[in-house]
Amino acid sequence: MPQATPVIDINYGAPGYIVNFVLFSALFVFNAVVYIRSRLQAKRFADHCVYLPNENQTQKGYRPSRLGRSCRALSVIFLIWMQCSLIITFLSNYQHYWPYSPGKGEENKHVTWDSFTRAFLLPWITTFLLLVGLRRHHSSLAIFYMCPCSLERATHVKVHSSIEDENGNRQDFEDVVPVSITARNLRMIEWQLLRYVYCSSKDAFTSDPQYDNDDDEGMKVERDITGVWANEMHRKGGVSSEMASVMLDGPQGRNEITVHIPSILEGCVTEFFSFFYIYQFFAVTLSFYWDYVSVGLMMSLLVLTCGVIKVYTERMQRLKMKEMATLDETILVFRDNQWKSVDSHEACVGDILCLTSKLEDEDAENENHPHHRPLLTADCILISGSCVVDESLLTGETMPIQKFAVSEDKRVRIPDSAEHKKHFLFAGTCLLHAGGADQTELPDHVSEGGLAIVTHVGPRSTRGILLRTLLFGSSTRLHIVAEAQFVLALLVFIAFWDFLAVNLNYEFNLSSVLAATFMLISMVSPLLSVAVLGGQLASAQRLNRKKPAKETREQEEGEQASADETIQIYVRDVDRMALAGKIDLMCFDKTGTITKTGLDLIGFLPASNKSETRASWEELHPLEGYVAGGEELDELLAAALALTHTVSRLGKQLIGHQVELRMVEAAEQLGWKYEEGMKAANEWTIVKQWTFDHQTMTMSVLTAKERGDEKKNLVFVKGSFEAVSTRCSPKLDDKWRRAVELHSKRGCYIIAIACKNVDDDQILTISRQQAESSLTFLGLIAFRNEPKMQHGGVECVMVTGDSALTGVAVAKTVGIIPEDHFVFVGKLDDKKNLSWTQVVSEERKPAGEKDAESGRAAESARDGEKTREEGKRDDERDESSMKTSLVVSGDVFEHLLNNGSMGEFLHCRKSCRVRGRSTCECPRIRVFGRMTPHQKVQVVREFANNMRTVGMCGDGGNDSGALRSAHAGLALSGRAEASVAAPFSTDSDSLAALTLLLREGRASLCTSFAAYRFLIVRGIVWTQAKNIMFLIAGLYLPPLGYLYLDLVSTSLFLWAISLSKPSSRLSPRIPEGSLLGPQNVISATISVLLYLSILGILLAVLFTRSWFKPFQSGDALYKWQTRSDNYESPLFFIWAIWFTVDLAIVYSNGHLYRLPWWKNMALIVVSVLMATPILLLLLLNGTDYNCAFKINCDMITYFKISSSPVNKILFPYERIGGNEWYAPSENTFYSHNFKVVFLVVLGLGSLFHAVVYSKVILGPVVQDWIPNRLKWNDSSAQILFELMSLKFHHVYSLLQTSLFSCFFKFGGKVPMQREDQDMQPMTKSSYSNE
User: Fold this and answer.
1) Where are the annotated segments for Disordered (predicted)?
2) Which of 497, 549, 570, 1039 sits at 20 to 30 Å (Cα–Cα) from 507?
3) DSSP letter string, 838-877
4) From CA 736, how far away is CA 618, in angstroms rounded?
5) DSSP-derived secondary structure letter, 773
6) DSSP letters along 1279-1328, please?
């Protein structure tokens, strides 16, 4: 009888392991030596690290070393060996052959499973730890094996910069960039699109180097841009070809913005080299070793697919960004005393540029689209002539803008200043028309054009700065990104206890450790990486697709769409889709956003009106009365109306500011006939123009009138009433101020008109300051925007450049300020003391009230009549219940901001006890007037810094900064296909686009939460079920069951959930925006408890059946294929499929933000496809189909299907059927009664879950009572998360924002003092916090 070969157990004391341990130790020592050597050399070289305070940048120089290269090569070889040993161990385990002891073939076939497991664990754990360490320190990996050196000798530079963007967010950037050498032997690096050149005097790479040769002007990229410099460059003939070559090869570089598009391989490496995918590698390799190859391959395929989808999405965004950045035109520049046609990439700072439109005027009427017009390729300052440009592609400004030549002065010109923009033309804008330059200075083939000097090129242009902000600005993300990490930590905590429970039951042997580890892998699904992205991508695709007007009318309640109207929203940043759904505060610009596009000139208030009755001189004289001939407009006022403008004509289209366009149109209605060029009309000629100045708030023209022998010269001035009135002599009566305030309250935009006689000898020498002094007042012109806004269910504030009182009128009309609110306007006196003055509308004014100054009678009862008794009752009402809205102008806003008290006036103080912020009645600022573009950004930032999700809706260039600063900015009437002004842009001017964005954003947010909860709850429930299976008898599902459950059903349901469409109307309620909020936490908890309870009930019923026999196995735990022939495993499988289907349907409940689940056809189809096969498995007995899944199977059929052709595509240990039957009886049939009970329990469980979810989770308990009474909401969830994260300094600021209302008194009490149109200040000096 042959002697049995003994089983060999190989432990870590074997020679092969010792060799690996020695190699690893030696490699560790080598890396430690490299690190210590690098630290010592860094201290030795004083010029190794240089800090540039002006650029807030730190630079460190490095160069390769032999020791570093050798150590890196050895480290890479060792890491490759670890991977090879993993593969060898996999294959050897499948063949049951030990590969690491050559020459003993028979003995190698009898090595224990524990020996293979030890061989697997060593490289598996080592690789995982190495990858985690490399990912943690990946930023230092590039220079770890390099030698520190001076920047002068460096071949690589590690750059670290800290940048504060326009949102006030500071973000750190760090990267290692190679040093390149140009043809002129300049050493340079490229960092965030900018070129940095080595400067020996600074011993660093700088974007603005100071060279010893000051005459080399070509090297000076940045300079003060003044009118003197621009005209001097014009006289010098611009830049020579030689100097241009120097500049192109120097710090300036080519006039192009190079957006790096990573290759597919590079993008995949960046994506997959993350902690999540390292974890997936950890899980997949365990699947391969655990004889679970099919699932391992499918998991690998899913992980790779998810990663590739994300890489593709980001690549497409980069390609769109590159398309925006690419400008390829032929330009005319003056070099070497002649005009040359050069490629736009060769433009240099200081070049003289000829501006001319490609289309003739007669073609402009039909081809006004920007793509038919030349694009400006660099920022330049206009020095001769005038231009009309379309800036919608850059800033979102809807109307064409006229540009004027700069004067020859020494004032520094800043391109982004509102005052200086009228002289600058920006890269990326469309040139509609150019003319007015001297013909002798233009090229011979150009009949009409303008001249400009190039000021900024490439990434330093306005377009380049915008693109750099988009590429490198701080990202704005929901707080759920950080909360998701906490959720994952919670899952790890649960998994730890499950791990202990299993291993305590099996005494911590290698089989139980790997089995428990594999069980816990299912806790975190590989699909989590795309769970949030799926809903956002689906919403973005729907927004990018044009909606027909019919669908728009059905979905947008109250929106009247024309037959050919379409709404398309271009989504530039997909990550902000969910942010759009969380918006709880929306900032609106007034002009053209919540009012209809354009202004209407509604009337005049002439100074020639001699009426002394208040009702007469306060009433506007409508334009229609003058047009119809009922009245005759004062001659000088009519001349000012017709001539005080900078409007030009392009074909048949008038180009200019809205106010001036309406003035010219009104003048034409009154009979004024303009000559070509718009510089003369009737008998008047414009001699000189002074364009609008944002500092003086005025615009003026010098005109001449000739009628026969009669000739006179007049200066007409228009501007704000405050600016014009201070320049008038004699001083204006106070009634004009009251009239301006009255009509501003009625929603009018008021400008004042004045004039002055000028002698003939002063025409050529008069300055603007002289022309705008000692004026004669002519009257007022009133304009109005008709409101178009409809309520959207979020809190709204107005942030406008118009006057505060005009904003109040519009805000009241559209409901931003409720009708029953008292309105107070903040004012600063000469000593910068803040006082609040009540604005009394005509409806609130008591009848018979006397004017404070003149004593005249109040207006008639039709303007609002109220008895003195009613007024008295109002004065005596409880001041704490006073409903108040506050209004501030730009100067008051700056005052509050500088004093640190702005936060007190922005938010609900909870004293109103009204549910929802949008219906709050607390005293707070609802209108911001006279706001500059920078102040609009500050308003958005202040709200965002106080735990608000802020949206911005605007339509002009002045809003572009705020649009980018907001969490979700929507540019109305922009060029949807190319605008970089905002994350969202549309070519529609309707607020239906905003409503559509909010609906899609809320649907995206709810879908992302539903998908995330689906995976988390399913992971927790299924992991606990696996734990129960192990504790019962080490049970497993059949191989096909795992494939069906873990891969097919989960991925299909996740795809179906992401296709949920938004609700047809916008709900006034904002969805929950925190993973730790009550809806997410309570619904997940109820689902977990319900499903595990159902499982317990089914097991209890099964265990009490007379035909039931418990499963017992003597095989090792790792032989999982032998542990699925029983009664228990089919129950777990059917139950798991049921709760997966039920979970997907319940979490797809539409509620207020999505359509009902039965309108999601993809979900219905997937549910039927997944549930029907399982229902058949439960109802049928003894079929081949049953035995393939080992459900209701018998031994004979099981043996028979072992010859099935399906086995040809399965691994040996995954094949169906077999020659051994491990069940405790000859079949595993469920009785008919048990099947009925099974179905009844599952049906009742689904019904109970649906009722609880719809009535409790989506009902008043979780939606209202818990957030309002228990104060468990998004804000408290965020504070709790911060506490758990030990960020106490941030918690303090959050508590200060959320709880200050408990201790805050709104200036003591609000006096109920009345005030007439004089707006006398209240006795209370301010509402500041005591």
Assistant:
1) 839-883
2) 1039
3) EEPPGGGSPTTPPPTTT-PPPPPGGG----HHHHHHHHHS
4) 9
5) S
6) HHHHHHTT-HHHHHHHHHHHHGGGT--SSS--------TT-PPPSS----
Is residue 352 classed as helix, strand or coil in its secondary structure?
strand
3-state SS, one letter per residue, for 918-945: HHCCCCEEEEEECCCHHHHHHHHHHHHC
- Give CA–CA dist 801/889, Å, rounded: 9
Amino acid (1-letter code) at residue 682: N
Q: Count H helices and E strands in the chain, helices first.
A: 42, 38
Residue 264: both structure tokens together: 């597919």
Token duo for residue 1315: 């005030």
Pinpoint the alpha helices (H) of 945-1077: 960-965, 992-1033, 1039-1042, 1050-1057
Would you state the pLDDT for residue 157?
A: 93
With a cut of 50, list the residues of the chain below it in pLDDT.
1-3, 210-222, 359-372, 548-565, 843-880, 913-916, 974, 976-978, 1286-1330
Closest CA to 80 of 31, 27, 29, 38: 27
d(C-alpha 151, C-alpha 58), whole Å: 11
Ramachandran angles phi, psi of 926, nearest 5°: -120, -15
CB of 286 closer than 8 Å to CB of 378:
no
- 330 burial class (0-12, 13-18, 19+ CB within 10 angstroms)? exposed
Query: Is 160 within 8 Å of 57 (Cβ atoms)?
Result: yes
Three-class DSSP category at 400: coil
Strand partners, 1227: 1194
Could you tell me the end-to-end alpha-carbon distance of the chain, in angstroms, rounded to an integer? 102
- The pLDDT, as a whole number, for residue 1299 is 37
- Give the C-alpha separation, 695 to 244, whole Å: 37
Residue 927 CA to residue 797 CA, distance in Å, equals 6
Contact 517, 272 (CB under 8 A): no
Q: Answer for the pair 120, 75: CB distance below 8 angstroms, yes or no.
A: no
Which residues pair with residue 61 across a beta bridge? 149, 157
Give the dihedral sign, CA 82/88/90/92: negative
What pTM value is reported for the model? 0.73
List C-alpha distances in Å: 319 to 245, 263, 329, 380, 695.
30, 11, 20, 27, 42
Q: Say how far apart CA 540 and CA 316 lie, in whole Å.
A: 13
For 527, other C-beta atoms within 10 Å of its C-beta total 22
Buried-state track 1156-1184, b at ≥16 Cβ within 10 A, e below 16:
ebeebeebeebbeebbeebeebbeebebe
Q: Which residue pairs from 1047-1050 have beta carbons closer than 8 angstroms and sit at least 24 positions apart in sequence? A: 1047/295, 1047/298, 1047/299, 1047/302, 1048/1170, 1049/1137, 1049/1140, 1049/1141, 1049/1170, 1050/525, 1050/527, 1050/1015, 1050/1018, 1050/1140
**DSSP state letter for 111:** B
- Decide if 948 contacts 585 (C-beta within 8 A): yes
Q: What is the full DSSP assignment across 184-197? A: T--EEEEETTEEEE
- Two tokens at 135? 């990912």
Query: What backbone phi and psi angles, to 5 degrees, belong to 1073?
Result: -120, 25
Asked if residues 949 and 998 have their Cβ atoms less than 8 Å apart, the reply is no
Q: What is the pLDDT of residue 1124?
A: 85
The partner residues of 825 in beta bridges, in order of sequence, read 837, 887
Evaluate whether 882 touches 1310 at the Cβ level (below 8 Å).
yes
- The whole-angstrom separation of Cα 241 and Cα 254 is 14
Beta-bridge mates of residue 49: 60
Q: 954 and 396 in contact (C-beta within 8 Å)? A: yes
Neighbour tally for 73: CB within 10 Å: 11
Residue 258 class from Cβ within 10 Å (0-12 exposed, 13-18 middle, 19+ buried)? middle
Task: Give the length of the chain.
Answer: 1330
